[in-house]
TrEMBL record:
CDD domains the UniProt entry points to: PTS-HPr_like
Phylogenetic placement of the source organism: Bacteria, Bacillati, Bacillota, Bacilli, Bacillales
UniProt entry keywords in alphabetical sequence: Cytoplasm, Phosphotransferase system, Sugar transport, Transport
One Pfam family matching this protein: PTS-HPr
Descriptive protein name: Phosphocarrier protein HPr
């Protein structure tokens, strides 16, 4: 299992477009991928779950991947966070 923490720097936080992209990236992997924010854990493969958290600028999130392709999953999710200007 891999667990990484990120601080959201985007002024609009994780809104619909980047949330959709994150869900699409996470859905490519067999690993269980979770996003934790304010003691709530959701499946990162669920757009409704991501949107329900209301993650704003300055928030700290934790992403966990557990499975056979966890390294690739975390690496690509991190790249997506950076590319979308979220972290």
């Amino acid at each position: 299992m891999i667990k990484k923490e990120y601080k959201i720097i985007n002024e609009t936080g994780i809104h619909a477009r980047p949330a959709t992209i994150l869900v699409q990236v996470a859905s490519r992997y067999e690993s269980v991928i979770e996003l934790e924010f304010k003691n709530k854990k959701i499946n990162l493969k669920s757009i409704m779950g991501v949107m329900s958290l209301g993650i704003s600028q300055g928030s700290t999130i934790t992403i966990t991947a557990d499975g056979t392709d966890e390294n690739d999953a975390i690496r690509n999710i991190e790249n997506t966070l950076k590319t979308e200007g979220l972290v």
